């Protein structure tokens, strides 16, 4: 191996040669690069002196590559492509980790979004890409990295762990609450009940007082839980507050609690991932979600 390597022209000079070849003139290359015509000429001349042959034929309309210039430029551009590919691979490996998280819109609006920046912050910073949808995203198929599902758990083909349990109690607008002052459960059930697509919470609350509940024409169903709460504020009936999920909304709203009876909801939010999820950034987001729930429980 020859220990005395031949010196190379600076990369900036090689880039200038490529620039002149693309633009077809020293003047156009100077305008594109912000260098002077003289600087462009000196850089090209330095490479030609190093090679020992001309790269360009000079003519009145500009310059064109010589045969040697064409061959040399092809090798230089290939070398730059190799450098660019290596740099892209390095940046890809070191870029900010991202985790795709699927939630229903109501959970995003009531709990997640106000905590999102703190969930992303820390070491390392993690870009949490939130998708809001009512359907259950298929984590097993790689649609998202984490899904938050509301239910009893026990799903097959995925891993699930409880995140947040809920306590239920009825709330209504001040006007409706005034009419229900001192009312028993039977009198309350004479009012329209507001709920989303699942009656499990209302059945649990009524069952705790020995009352059964069947679907009724006067009740109102809304797909999104935040719309349920908005309907209660509008005086359309009685809704179930889901604590702690709805705590922030309730603190800012006109809604009034209309019964001291509260029950644990049979359903809760679960963190759902593909089987045997091991990616560090996914596990870190899961740990941060649990920490956020614990922090909320202490306040």
Spatial arrangement of strands, main beta sheet: 4-3-5-13-6
**Rounded radius of gyration (Å):** 33 Å
- Protein structure class: alpha/beta
* Low-pLDDT ranges: none
CATH architecture of the largest domain: 3-Layer(aba) Sandwich
Largest sheet features: 5 strands, mixed
- Span of the ends, CA to CA: 70 Å
Instruction: Tell me the domain tally.
Output: 2
Mean pLDDT: 91
Describe the global form. Answer: elongated
CATH topology of the largest domain: D-Maltodextrin-Binding Protein, domain 2
CATH class of the largest domain: Alpha Beta
H and E order = HHHEEHEHHEEEEHHEHEHEHEEEH
Helix content: 40-55%
Query: How much beta, percentage-wise?
Result: 15-25%
How many individual helices? 12
Total strands: the figure is 13
Summarize the topology.
Layout: H1 11-23, H2 26-33, H3 37-51, E1 56-59, E2 62-65, H4 67-94, E3 98-103, H5 105-112, H6 116-120, E4 127-132, E5 146-151, E6 159-164, E7 167-172, H7 174-179, H8 185-189, E8 194-195, H9 200-207, E9 220-221, H10 225-233, E10 239-243, H11 247-252, E11 256-257, E12 263-264, E13 268-273, H12 280-298
Parallel strand pairs: 3-4, 3-5, 8-9
Antiparallel strand pairs: 1-2, 5-13, 6-13, 7-10, 7-11, 7-12
Helix pairs in contact: 1-2, 1-3, 2-3
